[in-house]
DNA sequence: CATGAATGAGTCTTCATTCAT
DNA sequence: GATGAATGAAGACTCATTCAT
């Protein structure tokens, strides 16, 4: 306690400066990554872009991977934030409306920095520290699963875990594909896309009719004669 | 006349040797890519793995990108082959059964070399020649679209283009996610996964009841007011 | 205020160190070029000879060509310096004496580093940046032309531009030839060479008698009949 | 003798084919050298340009240097030929006219293939075999010297060796400079150039007036106090 | 003899990281 | 703590030359 008086303020000033430096570096990393691609994003270039010396960069990040990992984490956090907000807002909505809003949030999330998002998706190797970061994606799963749990009554799918996985994966992939690779298909027509995806998901979670198609035993590869 | 006999074989012998070298190099590339990742896959390492000198590698491929592009093309072709076969087989089936078989083919395709597929998806930069290769993916779109066209009567979605895009993207993403990132979820239970995905797609294409959920106007952030 | 003192020196210390590194690299380049020839002068060898890492070399020069260009520039500057000094000194001399001194300066200039000069002349490709460097040679032309302009009265050649070009080219070539390729012809007899060249030039600029030989129309190959 | 019957004809046929191959290769070398420069003129490229396999190239030339040396020799021979012809023709002319024709021959010689000549002069390293080739230049010296000897009476320069060296060097350098580096100065005005150079040389060999400028003892560098 | 596939040493250049100031 | 010069391993690619066919 005695230490808190002089230490805390001074430390937080330092921390504030540190935090500012970290943000500056992450911003520079994002810019370089977007402009040059992963392979040409050298730590020297990033430091220069940040207006800082390489040495300083290494004062805050032990190596390049950690730097990129931190940026990925920040970006994921920003995206997640939007989803979290949407989930809060949606809590009392009926399923279809709620799913619609969640899809819309997914689109917004992909638009936070779609160029950067593409680089992460397409070029950044998922090794070491980056592997752990997918844990953030896990959070998405848990949040969505919790929501579906609450709406259990409206859902006819038996296994909620796999249903969540399927819905989250499908929405994320469709959003990604359309925002990143077919942005022209969304121009001025975002709602149509959202509507379609929503229908896909809602139709899956709540099949109105009874006829759930059951997959037949595999027909192909009957070569060996087995069933 | 007599001399003509040895000429042709000799030429094809050369071609056979060339082809063999190309295959050797692509195999080595796949192995190095899988084992070391894209960043550590140097042309020297690839040549060494192939048991060949770098010079030979450059006799067959003008640069590293072309080598990787050729491997991607080969892999895509193998995957596409499975889908093509499935589409042929499925031509006369009813929609649900057909979709089931197609999903199964997608799974098989991702299992052709899932480790390599992951590297392509996660690390190989989509630049230059690689961009063109996504054209192969375009082929998937066209093939599936053609199939849906034939089953038009059973499909209630108005815009077949976007429906195809959505189905192909969703199936590919779900298959990718489960084969690549959650393989344990498929062990001994592949049919359940296939069934779920099939239900997702069929439910989307052929909503039995009338209640198609229409997305409400955006509730949050009524930005510019546009639809 | 007190702090201002160390700052400036430190900066100039850095600049001094930079300049020292540049000189070291240029010296090493000259040594390698002289000892090994242009083709065997690799950046790695040059860096090693300089006792520096390749990386450092590239911190100061963007590529091999720039390095060689800088060395050429330095060498040309040194040679030019001698000529400039001679021209100053010679301003008031009569034409013959002046030309003699200028020829002597040309010899001295070629002796600055004749081995290096030979490499530049014989092996270094005149491309890219090097092309611009010939501009330094342009300076020679202008300086000499200015001198001749002042001595106009003693010169009977009508076109001063072409006269300058002829004199400069002839002196440079003769000096080059004798210093670089026939150094033994100069040993202990430099003044005789200088005298001969001076007579060549002075005789050309100031033909005492009237009989200027006019070239007859071409005798051989009266091709199209043109003059 | 007995062997001569079957051997000689067959051999000469072979030799003829050999000679043709050599010429083809030299032509290709010239083309590649001119188009790509010395550094980018690889034996593989040369062979390909010649429409021949590398192996064949090495059947006729032990290495790249020998190939280039042979081309230099051929080119020098062609140039020399023109000079030789001119000297024959000029034998009976008076000095001024003769020098004029010789200068004209020098220009023609440089125009044989000026692009190639430039490459030789500026990029080809004078090492190994190439060194010996300058012997061809020696021939020029001897031929010109022989001519001057015959015209001894008209020449007032005491040392014919150095006079020859000076004349040959000056004419070659001036021709080179104007044909290679200032071709525009010759367009439609070749005779003017030839006239000037001729005046330079004739004025040097046959100074009409007595006043041969004698070089004074060096004036510069009197720094240390010496004369 | 001709061929051209194969070789691998060697070139230029980049970049993550360190450390003296 | 900040700086940025220095490092040197490593990468993509070229090319003279050889040799089995």
How would you briefly describe this protein structure?
The structure is a homotetramer of 227-residue chains. With 227 residues, chain A is mainly alpha-helical.
SSE map:
4 copies of one chain form a homotetramer.
Chain A: H1 4-36, H2 43-50, H3 54-60, H4 64-90, H5 95-111, H6 114-122, H7 128-150, H8 160-181, H9 190-205
Helix pairs in contact in A: 1-2, 1-4, 4-5, 4-7, 5-8, 5-9, 7-8
Chain B binds a DNA duplex (21 and 21 nucleotides) through residues 10, 14, 17-18, 21, 42-45, 52-56, 58-59, 63-64.
Question: Could you tell me the strand content of chain A as a percent range?
Answer: under 5%
Instruction: Give the class of chain A from helix and strand content and strand pairing.
Output: mainly alpha
* Number of distinct beta strands of chain A: 0
Please describe the biggest sheet of chain A, giving its number of strands, its sense, and whether it closes into a barrel.
none
The Rg value of chain A, from CA coordinates, equals 23 Å
Mean pLDDT of chain A: 85
In CATH, the architecture of the largest domain in chain A is Orthogonal Bundle
Number of helices of chain A: 9
Uncertain ranges of chain A: 1-7, 219-227
User: What number of structural domains do the residues of chain A give?
Assistant: 2
Topology pattern of chain A, helix = H, strand = E: HHHHHHHHH
The name CATH uses for the topology of the largest domain in chain A is Tetracycline Repressor, domain 2
Distance between the termini of chain A: 74 Å
CATH class of the largest domain in chain A: Mainly Alpha
Oligomer: homotetramer
- Fraction in helix of chain A: over 70%
**Biggest chain pair interface:** C-D, 60 and 59 residues
């Amino acid at each position: 306690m005695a230490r808190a008086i002089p230490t805390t303020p001074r430390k937080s000033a330092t921390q504030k400066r540190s935090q500012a430096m970290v943000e500056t570096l992450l911003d520079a990393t994002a810019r370089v990554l977007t402009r040059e691609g992963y392979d040409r994003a050298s730590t020297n270039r990033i430091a220069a872009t940040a207006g800082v010396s390489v040495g300083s960069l290494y004062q805050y990040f032990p190596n390049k991977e950690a730097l990129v990992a931190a940026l990925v984490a920040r970006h994921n956090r920003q995206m997640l934030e939007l989803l979290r907000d949407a989930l809060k807002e949606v809590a009392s909505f009926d399923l279809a409306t709620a799913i619609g809003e969640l899809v819309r949030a997914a689109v917004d999330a992909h638009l936070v920095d779609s160029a950067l998002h593409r680089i992460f998706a397409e070029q950044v190797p998922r090794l070491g520290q980056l592997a752990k970061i997918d844990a953030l994606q896990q959070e998405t799963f848990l949040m969505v699963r919790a929501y579906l749990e609450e709406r259990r009554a409206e859902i006819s799918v038996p296994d909620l875990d796999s249903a969540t996985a399927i819905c989250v994966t499908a929405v994320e992939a469709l959003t990604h594909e359309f925002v990143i690779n077919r942005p022209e298909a969304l121009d001025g027509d975002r709602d149509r896309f959202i509507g379609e995806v929503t229908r896909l998901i809602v139709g899956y979670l709540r099949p109105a009719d009874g006829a759930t198609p059951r997959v037949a035993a595999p027909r192909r590869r009957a070569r060996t004669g087995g069933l």
